[in-house]
Design a protein that fits this description.
Helix content is 62%, strand content 10%. The chain is mainly alpha-helical. The chain has a domain of 59 residues: Transcription factor, MADS-box (SRF-like, 3-Layer(aba) Sandwich). Keywords: DNA-binding, Nucleus, Transcription, Transcription regulation.
Length: 247
């Protein structure tokens, strides 16, 4: 059973293409060698891969075979690409269009206005005014968006602050209901110096205490008892009073 017909077309897969190239190249060089040996022919094969790598085979000398080939072929005609007469026109049109665009851009920047007429200057002014209006509208829109975002952040901060104040009030109510110790109160009150110390005293003590300030602070630590303790104290005092009255 013979092999099926192979569709000759470009192999899209790179790995498959490389494997097929290697196999077909080896087979081609083998056939060229067999042709040279069997038929006593001068054979030269030159192969360039798609990556630019050179593969060659010659039955004798490659340079001699190539020189013989050029002698038999005759003078080689150098083929010059045909020039399309329309291409220079297209290039000239593109150059003119580029010059017009460059001149218009410079006019929008306020340059090269000497060759413009009154109508052209009026059209340019109107175009610039429309551009400025578009720029202002876009700027105002962005500013309004930023303002709305700032207000939203401010509202979120206010809500967060209110939630924190509510938590503080809840904590205060919790301490009042459970009768736990209230926070400590520390009072720093200035106390005047003793008259005897201010009036009397040795000079050495004055020199030793010269670095002290004019006021001496007396720190008082006040502890508030809980409501349960107060109730116990009131109960004990009431029992004592009743016992005294009975006696």
């Amino acid at each position: 059973m013979g092999r099926g017909k192979i569709d000759i077309r470009k192999i899209e897969n790179v790995n498959s293409r490389q494997i097929t190239f290697s196999k077909r190249r080896t087979g081609l060089l083998k056939k060229a060698h067999e042709l040279a040996v069997l038929c006593e022919a001068e054979v030269a094969v030159i192969i360039f891969s798609n990556t630019g790598k050179l593969f060659e085979f010659s039955s004798s000398d490659m340079k001699r075979i190539l020189s013989r080939y050029y002698e038999c072929r005759g003078p080689i005609e150098v083929l010059t690409p045909a020039v399309n007469p329309e291409e220079p026109k297209e290039v000239d049109l593109l150059k003119l269009e580029m010059e017009k665009l460059t001149s218009k851009h410079r006019q929008l920047l306020g340059k090269d206005l000497t060759g413009m007429s009154v109508q052209e200057l009026g059209a340019l002014e109107q175009q610039l005014n429309e551009g400025l209006l578009s720029i202002k509208e876009r700027k105002e829109k962005l500013l309004l968006q930023q303002l709305a975002q700032s207000k939203m952040l401010e509202k979120q901060a206010i809500l967060k602050n209110e939630a924190l104040l509510k938590q503080v009030e809840e904590f205060k109510g919790f301490f009042a209901s459970t009768g736990q110790l209230a926070p400590l109160v520390i009072n720093d009150t200035p106390m005047e110096k003793n008259d005897s110390e201010s009036k009397g005293g040795s000079g050495s003590r004055e020199t030793e205490n010269s670095w002290l300030d004019d006021e001496i602070y007396d720190t008082t630590l006040t502890l508030w008892p809980t409501s349960s303790v107060c109730r116990k104290r009131k109960m004990s005092s009431g029992e004592a009073s009743t016992s005294n009255t009975e006696t």
